[in-house]
Amino acid sequence: MQIVDLKTCLETKARAGKITTEHGVIETPVFMPVGTAGSVKALSPDDLIETETQIILGNTYHLLLRPGTEIIQSAGGLHKFMSWSGPLLSDSGGYQVFSLGRLNKINEAGVIFRSRIDGSSHELSPEISMDIQRILGSDIVMAFDDCTSYPATQAAAKTSMELTHRWEARSLQYFRSTEPCYGYRQELFGIVQGSVYPKLRKTSCQTLVEMNFDGYAIGGLSVGEPKQDMYAMTDVVTDILPKEQPRYLMGVGKPEDLVLAVSLGVDMFDCVLPTRNARHGIMFTWKGPISVKAAREKDVHEPLDAECECYSCQNFSRAYLRHLFKANELLVYRLASIHNIHFYNALMKTMRNAILAGEFPQFQTSFYNTYNVNRAGDID
Amino acid sequence: MQIVDLKTCLETKARAGKITTEHGVIETPVFMPVGTAGSVKALSPDDLIETETQIILGNTYHLLLRPGTEIIQSAGGLHKFMSWSGPLLSDSGGYQVFSLGRLNKINEAGVIFRSRIDGSSHELSPEISMDIQRILGSDIVMAFDDCTSYPATQAAAKTSMELTHRWEARSLQYFRSTEPCYGYRQELFGIVQGSVYPKLRKTSCQTLVEMNFDGYAIGGLSVGEPKQDMYAMTDVVTDILPKEQPRYLMGVGKPEDLVLAVSLGVDMFDCVLPTRNARHGIMFTWKGPISVKAAREKDVHEPLDAECECYSCQNFSRAYLRHLFKANELLVYRLASIHNIHFYNALMKTMRNAILAGEFPQFQTSFYNTYNVNRAGDID
Lengths: 380, 380
Known about the structure:
Two copies of one chain form a homodimer. With 380 residues, the first copy, chain A, is of the alpha/beta class.
């Protein structure tokens, strides 16, 4: 998979390009809302289009447990099941097995874990993950990796990374030996591990690039490490990864993280933050996040952001949103999610336009001057 | 308020007409979705328009307690607060005080009750209810009545009815002495009481009609009485109420009730049933209600109703809706509510067209032949 029409910032590593899937072209840098269980929480496919979402992410782990692959296969794939006709990326399921699952056994072959829903036993391996992602029919498939937990000693990180490399080699070999279930092309991304150790990260990059994946993700970050480590590892990795292929920083993040990671040459992001925060009334604006549930908003009959073009800002006041939150009205989860996803997409588009105009450094300065990360207090 | 372009069925009392408010014309018979706390649960104003909703209802009781009338007044009324530009009817608050509130005192002046949210003390009277509904800015205002509980002896029903009549006279007198808050016309409906006693119902009709309201509602039904009593009382009342004014049967009901009440000459309805049932997975179809959460739907990759034109049926399968319910995904409450409100509106429109075509009795026969009220089991 090539990233084309590539324009790179002269002062930073920021880059704007395009990647093509059989469900559509994606303009980068791009943010991917997370559709955990076959739904980007509270949003319909129309809402996603309306907020200018280009590609969404589905979670293999969640979909495997519910509704199960048989139902998605009989539906004709996840696109059809959830009525999303745009590009779709699926993760490998590995991360959730470790972070959410009740892990029973991990060995060279793969992992056995219990469902958090009904306690039933399930297995994941490179081959099983590829089979499931073929059934999901995602345009971009992720290799099955061992997401190194944080903190990890260098020795432990190396052991985990080497297991990842063996699993990814198996993922690739098996993936290339199987056919798409629904006729259209699927691409496979490798995932760089190596924790916070630059040497391991370099080794991981080189190993994966030799395997020749269709694109590359940076995994094992945003898992509790200091921000400077996240940025330093991203910087190391983007220096090595092939420039003509997309790079995806997994699980990141806050708006300020996206801006910095774009400056380091990342093309793709995913994170539950905009939708999860929306459901808690934390709304993103160009001046920073605000809590629309705060008492001070109770009679503010103005939108979250007067210049925002999202459906929520075009139609509803902060006072109304606050009221809906206080009254536990279902409508507000959608309105808040629409705004936050629209904001994230607008942020990416603004960065893309700045890169194309040769003005990314100016954008970056202006963003950090205007965006107050602490405006809503601690929003984690 | 006149109901115009009136066409009446020759064999039944069913009628089709039009009523005009300053927020739009309403074609009758009409169903009004309930926007309890300033939101028809899970639906946006755009969803309401998309489902062909003509008029919605707001609850004085809920809005008084939260967000409170000050905030709605500073927003410029409920239309602006909730971004609904179509016709709006508000109830008087009386019914909820009795059914939901913690009633402290009831006397000739009015009622004092405690908030179910924070325990604070509130007062409602004919005059206060009119003031609040002026502030809400509803196109149709309901007189403040005492909703007679069921069962009631004839003596108790008479006492309650007479209090209602005194309260409604005060409502009318006070309403006519006050001005709209936002410049546009508001109309006041009286509410017929009298429990299940034809004699009281007749007295109530005659008393209210002499007061000369803008329209008339039938209250105190669908409160636990046998269906035949509900129909019999409706039949008695619609024989007396002036033909040139709208009649509104409050709190009704199931599709089969709507069809029968239309045959008795009712023009307007409201009920939480379509939205509440939607949130529990009970979906209305022309063959009767179905539970989309049922195991048999798990791999049915077809819409709820293949002929339905709602957004949900046009895009999503029963299997997907069931999955979303099982996964507690917020999206499903909206999709299910869209379908049920669309169904109710389509039912009303079908009845209207049948009346206009002179084919209402045929419609009624066909509906009862096709619609299995017990299809989903007990759906209450």
